[in-house]
Design a protein that fits this description.
The structure is a single chain. The chain is mainly alpha-helical. Helix content is 61%, strand content 9%. Strand 2 and strand 3 form a beta hairpin.
């Protein structure tokens, strides 16, 4: 039972009702001119429903009418962000002007449907409300207070128990009619094939741009971290103050460059409108140059018997982390790059513990 009454507590039910009723304004205005609204017959109502159709179809040929109808449908037929019961589903209604005759034809069909549905719902609303008032009047001893199609025999007090019934029926009819009009809006005001293709292209462009930014950020930070690991390990193994100072300077420069790249990317993603600090100079073009498909294609390694497995794993990790920066500096050509990592004890290298890693990559 609560599930059946839940549409009556939602604001979108009443905005849909209003949206459908607004479509009856034009035929009612035309009926005031001809054939009139003084005791109209069923034939008069049929004429009222048909007369405005040419005017509606002529208005649908204007491209901006599709945008106007789409915006109204989005606001009135579907729950918005202010609704108590929100819907994450896309309304699927386009707000773009008509770009083809197919769009104009669908817009015309929607406008005619909205007009006819509004006129029908308006008549049903009028009769059900009149019936409810007639029941209330008959219960109070004054039958015939309204011009309802249903004539009540006599005056009885128990008519008061039936007063809410027409109102509940009207609310149910309005909820069903609004849901059906929402479904029709998705079909008749939905995006065309051209609009769908354009949206897919824009989405693809955004994904490609995000992937490009992620790749550039990965290469920049990966290069800085790899350089820091190599320099810190070499400085610790060398135990030379002069060499340690140069290693710290290299780590500082690599970290500063990575922070600048990170700042550029973050400001570009935030779109704050402010400049993202100093731009890189022309001499840093090699560092910022990005070459696609920098992953190594083939690798081989030669390890001397004296090296441990942990050292071999660290050497390979360092070598592979240096592949993308090497590809950026090498340019678009194919070649083979070799790294030779020697474990040192103090300032004397140990030739018996050497790892040589060769990477075949597209540079």
């Amino acid at each position: 039972m609560p599930g059946l009454l839940s549409p009556l507590t939602r604001a979108v039910t009443y905005t849909r009702w209003l949206h459908v009723l607004v479509g009856a304004i034009l035929p009612i205005v035309c009926a005031l001119v001809y054939p009139g609204l003084v005791k109209p017959t069923p034939a008069d109502w049929a004429l009222i429903a048909v007369l405005p159709v040419p005017l509606i179809l002529a208005a649908a040929m204007v491209p901006s009418m599709r945008r106007a109808e789409g915006l109204q449908a989005r606001l009135m037929l579907f729950p918005g962000p202010h609704a108590r019961v929100r819907s994450e589903e896309d309304p699927g209604v386009s707000a773009a002007p008509s770009a083809s005759w197919s769009d104009r034809a669908r817009t015309g069909a929607w406008m005619v449907l909205r007009m006819e549905a509004g006129l029908a719902l308006g008549l049903v609303s009028d009769q059900l409300l009149a019936l409810s008032l007639s029941l209330a009047g008959a219960a109070a001893g004054s039958p015939g207070v309204t011009d309802s199609l249903l004539t009540l025999p006599g005056s009885h007090w128990w008519y008061a128990l039936l007063v809410p019934v027409p109102v509940l029926v009207l609310l149910a009819v309005a909820a069903v009619a609004g849901a059906l009009m929402a479904q029709a809006a998705r079909r008749l005001l939905g995006p065309s094939v051209r609009e769908r293709l354009s949206e897919l292209e824009q989405r693809t462009e955004r994904l490609l741009e995000r992937n490009r930014i992620a790749q550039e950020l990965h290469d920049s930070l990966g290069h800085a971290l790899t350089l820091a690991v190599v320099q810190a390990g070499a400085a610790r193994a060398a135990a030379d103050p002069e060499f340690t100072g140069r290693a710290l300077e290299a780590i500082e420069e690599a970290g500063r460059a990575a922070l600048e790249d990170l700042e550029q990317v973050l400001f570009m993603l935030r779109d704050t409108g402010r400049p993202a600090g100093p731009r890189p100079a022309l001499g840093e073009a090699d560092r910022l140059n990005w070459a696609p498909a920098t992953a190594p294609r083939r690798s081989s390694r030669r390890t001397s018997p004296g090296s441990s497995r942990r050292a071999e794993a660290e050497d390979e990790l360092v070598a592979r982390g240096g592949a993308p920066p090497a590809a950026r500096h090498a340019g678009p050509r194919t070649g083979e790059t070799r790294w030779c990592v020697q474990q040192r004890q103090g300032s004397v290298p140990k030739p018996s513990a050497t790892t040589s890693l060769s990477l075949r990559a597209p540079w």
